[in-house]
Request: fold
Amino acid sequence: MENFLSISKCSTAQLQELLELSAELKKSYKNGLRDLCLAGKSLAMLFEKTSLRTRISFQVAMADLGGHALYLKPEDIGIIGKREPAKDMARVLSRYVHGIMARTFSHDTIIEFTRFATVPVINALSDWSHPCQAMADVLTIKEHCGRLEGIKIAYVGDGNNVARSLAFACAKLSMKFVCASPAGYELDADSIGRVNDIAADTALQISDPIAAVKDADIVYTDTWTSMGQEDEKAKRIKDFEGFQVNAQLLNNAPDSVKVMHCLPAYRGQEITDEVAEAPNSIIFDQAENRLHFQRALLKKLLSK
Reply:
């Protein structure tokens, strides 16, 4: 593994190795043991979009491993490709640091970085893929369910980058994925097709959230209005009526179901406060696991 761009580009063996390393490092750090494998190493963190979890988890992970992270704010770099071409930034940064992490609007920016960078590139979020989030989610599911094989994830909401990454993770790791979305907000047919080409009958797109959550092990949701879509907020709230993850919806799911959300959560919109704070909510466990997965990813990519 030279870069980490999307789950679709990783093999099952690579994903399993990262999950095992994540669990191993999490246990070590919980027991007060440190692995300083990145001593003297540095990571450039480029942010076109602001973030709480992505920034802090990567920064802490680098420090935990003995390395150093440099935070480049949106106002520092502007929109990548306008102030300075991505290919120029990639080549300059490759001469300063040992790795590049980018949280961008366009997935093409991430691809351009990998073409010209001579150090590992990590996709910390793009409009097409959010692989670090999905892998932290998978780690959390394995911890709470004791397995991955046969797990059913019911994703209720916008067929966005998180939904796509989870769908590909399901195909690679023997899980099932059902996405329930209103018309016009479905996970794209090309992604559904590619997922099912990897593992037949893995992913299904439907319009009925009640049908989606039946027999689900996990009910997952995300914000209806992502960063950069603020002008669509009022329309989206109206269009997503009936797709809220609330107690009424969960009455149609098994009693053992777990609830997940990648955060930030807009309580009262895609999820109710009651559900977010319920005993079966594992939202903050998955947020914590961003740190543990990314620690493993950084060790894998930068300790060579």
In short: The longest helix spans residues 283-302. The longest strand covers residues 42-47. The chain is about 45% helix and 15% strand. The chain has two domains: 7-130+290-302, 134-286.
